[in-house]
Amino acid sequence: MKRDKIYNEYMFDTKVENIFINEYMKDAPADFLKVYLMALMFTDLGKEMDEEKLKKSLGIAADDDVVERAWKYWERLGVVRREKGEIVFVSLKESLYGKKKSEKQKAPSDVVEASLHILDDSGLKAMFTSIEKIMNRPLNGRETESILGWIDVTGATPEIISYAYKYCVETMKKENVNYVGKVVESWTNKGFRSRAQAEEYLEEMDNRHYMYKRVLRAMGFSRNATENEKAIMDTWFDDFDFSMDMILEACAKTSGISNPNMNYVNTVLMNWNKEKTGKDETGEVTQKHVGEYYDFIREKAEREAKERKEEVYTAIPEIKKLDDQMKNNYISLTKTALGGGADKNEAMNRLKAENDKIRERIKMLLTENRVPVDYMEVRYKCPLCKDTGMTDEGIRCQCYIEREKEAAQWQK
Prior knowledge:
This protein is mainly alpha-helical. It has 19 helices and 2 strands. InterPro entries: DnaB/C_C (IPR006343), DnaD (IPR053162), DnaD-like_sf (IPR034829).
């Protein structure tokens, strides 16, 4: 006698320990939970599963590091361990109850408590206490995991993280963990290790903001500077090393023209800089050339994404229909938001939910046709600034130096 062999993976069951559900699941970030469960399923089936396949199964973009962050998270809690490059799922029952008392794992009900050995060694416990005092509430599991992740991934110091929270909450009135994370990443990329370094930088940025406003007022404008205008003025201050008096003198020359503008002042100062240095800047990589190169690579990436999208539309016509339907929903969403009516919010929520379903359907179609889920997206050289040269904080992106080198070759 024998049973039929089951070939379809969906006909099997995946066993998840109750200890995991009760003690670990409730505090785990949703994405990390998905990684754990999907990988556990394939492990129980005896199938080989690397990071690339796991991302594809979960519809995660190829350049997203969520899988690696998930394994760091679960490894820190003792749910998995690494052996020769492989992920081993720990038997939680054996870990907690099968060993001698002195060998038992610490209770996993709290992420911070489970990491006390890390906290005691590096002073992180004081950092968490400081942050909770700034936030005026306890940190949740996701926030705690994110903060530990910043230390693991970016090498941020507890002092920098504490001050980033103080700056974001008290000055910027932002306490979202993702917003704070961007600030921490930006400061760490600049090499900041202490609060004093961050304070000096912020003071400099405040001074620079005043300088922008002063120049615009001299030109007759009462508005804030655009990002492009800031980049141009940075050249005057940093590259040309002009004093405020000299820049204001150049601005005064706009009084004789009918339409005062930044480009006119820039031309004046560029000519003055040539006279000052005695150099002909033809052939040199200027701010303008780097800006043009950014425009070139950004437009190229967007054009290639459009071509890939047309390729997918031809191969999978249903995706074109779904995309068009989603665009129509966005138009309806805008009209609904601008309009009135008692059921306005209900209609908006319905349209948003419909678009969410459409996006999931598109991901499913791409996966079924062995097309990466991010195939139609724009592949910028720098996802941080999306090839604009400026970050969300309005500061020059860390990729600028590399783009400057590339612009020198592109210019030739």
